[in-house]
């Protein structure tokens, strides 16, 4: 599973996945115990048999300094992991394909294939810093820059649960409309969430100020057979030109305020009673005068 963040200018957050944490899940959403290895007939872990043993032997060497594939920023720069190569390519604006022959990505290629064939899930959490302009977040089985790593897109399960999604810090009373949202689909396609972000300034009763955002959302699902788009979950967001200011106040009023309100209420009752008494008195006198 990959996340790519793009803004309206087409710029992407180069190291977005470095700020995220991924956890492997079973088909039923249970966290996998990755410390336990499944062994093959020869006693070796099954997943290691599937990996490119030649590449793994090279990158595990103590003095290894991997090539950045021509994307080095300076002479002698080392790219020892797949993420290092990916980031170097993105800084150059080059297309990065996990399915290529980059030796540092041997482990990632094997894990991607194993995860797809075993119907594993992925839980992602973290913080992504984006510019204050219109943009989008793409959750897909592969990155735009990496090409297709899914054996069969029609088999890609896009069922998902959004535990929480927010644009900034929380404050008392804030409601994020996508929290605890569950979507389950038997057919593959593209989930689209269109979000309107409203800048918000919240001041609590002690005077502390929180600069954050609220948002509203509309959603739509497109079947892959209808639109031909790759499966995934897509969040597009746009900033509102209006900013909301919120100030917290006391729910329980002071005793002085209570007595002031009480006196005003009693005074109002006496004033209204006096007016009614005056109207009835003068009306009664006029009526009796006419009779006499």
What does this structure look like?
The protein is an alpha+beta fold and 292 residues long. The protein has six helices and ten strands. The strands form three sheets. Strands 1, 4, 7, 8, 9 and 10 form a six-stranded mixed β-sheet that branches. Strands 2-3 form a two-stranded antiparallel ribbon. A hairpin with a 5-residue loop joins strand 7 and strand 8 (209-223). The longest helix has 37 residues, at 255-291. The radius of gyration is 32 Å and the shape is elongated.
List the helices and strands and how they pair.
Elements: E1 2-7, E2 20-25, H1 46-50, H2 53-59, H3 82-92, H4 106-117, E3 121-126, E4 135-140, E5 160-162, E6 181-183, E7 189-203, E8 209-223, H5 224-227, E9 232-239, E10 244-247, H6 255-291
Parallel strand pairs: 7-9, 7-10
Antiparallel strand pairs: 1-4, 2-3, 4-9, 5-6, 7-8
Q: Quick one: overall form?
A: elongated
Poorly predicted residue ranges? 37-50, 143-151
Total strand count, please?
10
Largest sheet: 6 strands, mixed
Instruction: Provide the helix percentage.
Output: 25-40%
**Beta-strand content bin:** 15-25%
Q: What would you report as the Rg, rounded to the nearest angstrom?
A: 32 Å
Give the helix/strand class. alpha+beta
Order of helices and strands: EEHHHHEEEEEEHEEH
**Mean pLDDT, nearest integer?**
78
Euclidean distance between termini CA atoms? 99 Å
Number of helices: 6
